[in-house]
């Protein structure tokens, strides 16, 4: 299975398990993740959630072949019932604590989703990138809002405009992750942190999370709406077509032809 779901001692662990494709996420994988998070909300046996990948890579982001087949309906809009939207709504709306453990690259939505988790830990081999502009696109799922709040405008502008990769230590300095650990300590540490959450009063944890996040819910929804409108328009524009064509042809895109 491309997503491994396991439940033990109050912890639901969701693991990307598609290493042969660098854990690139398909619609089916998003659906599995969304369904698991929705089910966890009412499952009294789940008190904390751990999201992780493999030691070599967290996720390469969207599976671009799958993405291009399903991204745009015939009218050119984005389908907000697509599995990726279901997953992200379930993640940022989750009432239970979500712990992310990142090793290796977290690309695109692999970085975006971390901003909607509660505790984020990185291995020393982790790296992060949001290469939306490199694909002729724009930020997604409130990353333009949340990353700017975390890192400050100058550093957020550098990462979001250039789309370049940055290492775990820099992610720590910007507030994207809370701690950087040696690779082989990452998962045990994340599971131990989740176990601490499980041992605390569940109602207190949920109330604390709700109080901290409630002032951000409406701004997040507004940012997502703005981003999605632009993202949808840009997905059909010549720049994105050139970027995706170049990706599949394994060449460098030529954006100089566009004004």
Automatic annotation (TrEMBL):
Record-linked CDD domains: crotonase-like (cd06558)
Q: What is its main location?
A: other
Q: Which InterPro entries match?
A: ClpP/crotonase-like_dom_sf (IPR029045), ECH/Chromodomain_protein (IPR051053), Enoyl-CoA_hydra/iso (IPR001753)
Keywords, alphabetical = Isomerase, Peroxisome
Superkingdom is Bacteria
What Pfam families does the record point to? ECH_1
Q: Which GO terms describe its molecular function?
A: delta(3)-delta(2)-enoyl-CoA isomerase activity
Compartment(s) where it occurs, according to its Swiss-Prot or TrEMBL record? Peroxisome
Q: Which PANTHER family does the UniProt record give?
A: ENOYL-COA DELTA ISOMERASE 2, PTHR43684
Q: What is this protein called?
A: Enoyl-CoA hydratase/carnithine racemase
Which organism encodes this protein?
Janthinobacterium psychrotolerans
Taxonomy of origin reads: Bacteria, Pseudomonadati, Pseudomonadota, Betaproteobacteria, Burkholderiales
């Amino acid at each position: 299975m491309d997503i491994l779901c396991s439940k033990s001692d109050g912890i639901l662990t969701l693991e990307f398990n598609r290493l042969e494709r660098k854990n690139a996420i398909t619609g089916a994988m998003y659906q599995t993740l969304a369904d698991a998070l929705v089910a966890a909300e009412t499952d009294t046996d789940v008190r904390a959630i751990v999201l992780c990948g493999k030691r070599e890579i967290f996720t390469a982001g969207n599976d671009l072949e799958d993405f291009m087949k399903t991204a745009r309906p015939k009218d050119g809009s984005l389908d907000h019932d697509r599995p990726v939207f279901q997953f992200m709504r379930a993640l940022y709306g989750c009432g239970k604590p979500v712990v992310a453990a990142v090793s290796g690259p977290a690309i695109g939505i692999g970085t975006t989703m971390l901003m909607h988790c509660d505790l984020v830990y990185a291995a020393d081999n982790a790296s992060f990138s949001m290469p939306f502009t490199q694909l002729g696109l724009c930020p997604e799922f409130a990353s333009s809002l949340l990353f700017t709040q975390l890192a400050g405008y100058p550093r957020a502008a550098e990462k979001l405009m250039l789309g370049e990769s940055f290492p775990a230590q820099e992610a720590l300095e910007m507030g994207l992750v809370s701690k950087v650990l040696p690779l082989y300590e990452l998962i045990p540490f994340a599971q131990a942190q989740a176990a601490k959450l499980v041992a605390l009063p569940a109602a207190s944890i949920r109330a604390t999370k709700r109080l901290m996040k409630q002032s951000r819910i409406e701004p997040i929804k507004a940012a997502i709406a703005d981003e999605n409108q632009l993202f949808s328009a840009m997905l059909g524009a010549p720049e994105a077509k050139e970027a995706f064509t170049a990706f599949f042809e394994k060449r460098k895109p030529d954006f100089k032809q566009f004004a």
